[in-house]
């Protein structure tokens, strides 16, 4: 299924989850359990991340195969091409194609942090270049990432949006956004996209709050703003009260999703961090209320 077929006018909002390849046998066992639990929610698709410089290349393909062939689930293959040459890019995409992948999310990816990494001399500097390379060779339904608060490396939000428009003009058919804790960033982003002539579906990413430590770490990496009211609420939760943290995180995400869906978002894309407890609580509540 091509995702753009799922988001036809009048269709019920989609539900999807991001997962990433496990790095250890214990993590693999946990991920299998998480996928089994999330599958009970009947999601429209999963997305599978791809590590910087191809660092999870084999693991990403194995996970895609597990989702599609073993579990009968639809899956998007992330493709972060930074540092990879044309032959490596083709090899990865051929693996995805043979695994039955129909949808690919094209991102540049971050430079790998390991010492001594050397990018291929013919690697692509921008996601737009990578997208052009893929579009002329494959018939995947291609998507790209969007940044409601602006990409960290973009000189301005206007320039960031101009790059996004270029990618859509080059053939991107949908956008999945980075998360934000204040929906006003997403709504403003969509408004500015439409004003610029970007008409493809824009799917909001939602990051549940798992812990203050993880929230701060991810916000630093992704450039997400943490509202003062959110910070104040979290600091009022007794230290070590994990159950209270989980309940608050579920409630906050439900409020976010409810507002996004009420405003006409085509669906909800939850960043699971390979966990299931909070995601189950969020989706079950939204289903009870008839939003999904």
Key attributes of the depicted protein:
292 residues; alpha/beta; TIM Barrel; 9-stranded parallel β-sheet; 11 helices; 9 strands; 14% strand
Topology:
Blueprint: H1 3-6, E1 14-19, H2 25-39, E2 45-48, H3 57-70, E3 75-80, H4 86-98, E4 103-107, H5 127-135, E5 141-146, H6 157-169, E6 174-177, H7 183-195, E7 202-203, E8 205-206, H8 212-222, H9 228-235, H10 242-262, E9 267-271, H11 277-288
Parallel strand pairs: 1-2, 1-9, 2-3, 3-4, 4-5, 5-6, 6-7, 8-9
Helix pairs in contact: 5-6, 10-11
Can you give a write-up of this model?
This protein is of the alpha/beta class. The protein contains eleven helices and nine strands. Helix 2 links the parallel strand 1 and strand 2. It is globular and about 50 Å long.
């Amino acid at each position: 299924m091509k995702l753009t077929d799922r988001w036809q006018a009048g269709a019920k909002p989609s539900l999807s989850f991001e997962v990433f390849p496990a790095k250890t046998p214990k993590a693999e066992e946990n991920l299998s359990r998480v996928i089994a639990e999330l599958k009970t929610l009947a999601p429209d698709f999963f997305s599978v991340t791809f590590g910087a410089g191809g660092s999870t290349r084999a693991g990403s393909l194995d996970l895609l195969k597990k989702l599609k062939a073993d579990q009968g689930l639809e899956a998007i293959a992330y493709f972060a091409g930074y540092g990879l040459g044309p032959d490596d890019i083709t090899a990865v995409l051929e693996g995805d194609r043979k695994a039955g992948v129909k949808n690919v999310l094209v991102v540049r990816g971050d430079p790998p942090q390991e010492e001594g990494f050397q990018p291929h001399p013919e690697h692509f500097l921008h996601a737009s270049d990578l997208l052009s390379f893929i579009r002329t060779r494959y018939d995947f339904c291609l998507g790209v990432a969007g940044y409601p608060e602006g990409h960290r490396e973009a000189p301005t939000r206007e320039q960031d949006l101009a790059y996004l428009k270029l990618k859509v003009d080059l053939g991107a058919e949908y956008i999945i956004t980075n998360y934000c804790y204040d929906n006003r960033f997403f709504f403003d982003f969509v408004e500015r996209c439409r004003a610029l002539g970007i008409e493809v579906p824009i799917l909001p990413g939602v990051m549940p709050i798992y812990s203050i430590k993880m929230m701060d770490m991810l916000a630093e990496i992704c450039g997400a703003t943490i509202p003062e009211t959110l910070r104040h609420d979290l600091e009022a939760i007794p230290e070590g009260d994990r159950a209270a943290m989980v309940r608050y995180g579920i409630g906050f995400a439900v409020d976010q999703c409810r507002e996004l869906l009420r405003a006409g978002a085509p669906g909800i894309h939850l960043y699971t961090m390979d966990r299931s407890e909070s995601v189950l609580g969020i989706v079950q509540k939204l289903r009870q209320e008839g939003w999904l």
